[in-house]
């Protein structure tokens, strides 16, 4: 969300004296926050207080700061001065410049679109105003999710097809052929959403860093602070912000804004942590050993009674694939005590639908299968090592389970978790190690 504020402050100097110089002075005593920053902070403040009455927060913040740099636009100024502000059918770009906090705070697409509409409609309730807010919030949301898993070069094609696709689609039925000629917008002061948001998306799509995106936006010679705010809000989600740039603008903000930004960051941390706990719980249900309704980590063992030794004929299973693109062999050194090996040789026959693993052990291999599909995931070779045993290599079917990018290490950790869970060893520690390596 700081990206919108930085874009606003950097562009503020050039709002009424536009520049086409890409190498303009980045920041000076002539830069300050404008109404764009005030409204952005107001939306974040509403979210921190778990309110969807964005209009009240925007109105309150703007009333308490009556003279920001550049002032307020004519009709919005009337809205701010009113004691009972009502939406006035605006399709101005103010709806899009203030929405970034929603793109950070909500994950589900329907939630993002709904909250973006609410944040716009309190004043800018024209369909174009709402669409502008939704496009920017959706671009930020999609960029955040894309960034979690992407590795590689960030190119215009990647940004068009993977990051900005759905935002562009709000303006073009065929995002693949979306085209703009920036010369048509250069040195034109267009305050509408439809004249600003597509330009912002195009600029981001052809940028290669946060700073580059802001410089392209400001040097267009258009509505510099608002275009900078919109571009900066999306660019932050893609490239992040250099720490030095954060510090350059932080001292320009009053303490009450800084407090909201800190609270919003804490709010996002709590949301992320809560979401991760949910995701980890779902993953443990999918990959954990035993009956997930009676977890291994707490209290009574969730393992089935080992009254019978599992054999190859006890479950409908498939052989480990031979395709090297599917299966990886990892050299390991896992020592097993005689007592541990005695338990493992009994195997693992599921007794509940929530138990997703079948395992049997022959004279040479320990094999784990997904109980619902019979697919072989692990095939571990073991041999005697004095009075104990040693697992010296594991074949991992990394197409059978999601192991993340670090397949070999994460797969080995998951296998070690299964062994520990099977023998009531340090299952919780090895599960946490698996989660760490998978992420």
TrEMBL record:
Identification of the protein by name: ADP-ribosylglycohydrolase family protein
Cofactor annotation comment: Binds 2 magnesium ions per subunit.
Record-listed Mg(2+) binding positions: 34-36, 223, 225-226
Keyword list, A-Z: Hydrolase, Magnesium, Metal-binding
InterPro entries in alphabetical order: ADP-ribosylglycohydrolase (IPR050792), Ribosyl_crysJ1 (IPR005502), Ribosyl_crysJ1_sf (IPR036705)
Acyltransferase in keyword set: no
GO MF term set: hydrolase activity; metal ion binding
Cofactor(s) recorded in Swiss-Prot or TrEMBL: Mg(2+)
Organism annotation: Phocaeicola vulgatus str. 3975 RP4
Pfam families reported in the protein's UniProt record: ADP_ribosyl_GH (PF03747)
